[in-house]
Amino acid sequence: MSLRASVLLLVLLPSLAVAEGQPAPSRDQILAAGWNVMQKAGYCSFITIGEDGHPQARIVDPLGPDLDSTIWLATNPLTRKVRQVRRDARATLLCFEPATSSYVTVLAKASIVTSAAEKARHWKTEWTPFYPGGARSNDVVLLRLTPSRMEVVSVARGLSPDPKTWLPLAVGFP
């Protein structure tokens, strides 16, 4: 175990013990904390299944969630992630907020969106420098992430993992 991991455990473990006697947080509290962690994290890791079956991760700048919990990513249509999503729609988005050592993991189904109108509706201004043609360009597609499960660990927000197994709090999506 690295020194950094050991220090993180020493910081988190006292908080875990305090949280044991607390009532379980509601679904709404878990969702709110997860979305807040995602927003504060900014950049996240997007994981897809590679052609060889090995997970492939890369850094992305997500937009969302929408009211229906959809998360959006912009990418070049020629990237590996697009090929991988076409082959296997299972994907994971992992966002880490360093200031509070909080994280959210979103398991999702990814789909590719090429419609200019849909891209314009879900465009993040921060993406423009990477795609100078903007949302209407053929040099960009969106990936729509439809969550099936969210896991959250944020001791700072009162969401501690199981003290024995470290299993995070989780919610499912219909």
Briefly characterize the structure.
With 174 residues, this protein is of the alpha+beta class.
Q: Can you walk me through this structure?
A:
With 174 residues, the chain is α+β, with helices and mostly antiparallel strands. The chain has one domain (3-172): Electron Transport, Fmn-binding Protein, Chain A (Pnp Oxidase, Chain A, Roll), CATH 2.30.110. It is 26% helix and 31% strand. The chain contains four helices and seven strands; from the N terminus they run ααβββαββαββ. The chain has helices at residues 3-19, 27-41, 80-87, 116-121, and strands at residues 44-49, 55-60, 71-75, 90-97, 102-113, 141-153, 169-172. Strands 1, 2, 3, 4, 5, 6 and 7 form a seven-stranded antiparallel sheet that branches. β4 (90-97) and β5 (102-113) form a beta hairpin. It is globular. Mean pLDDT is 90; it is low at 1-19.
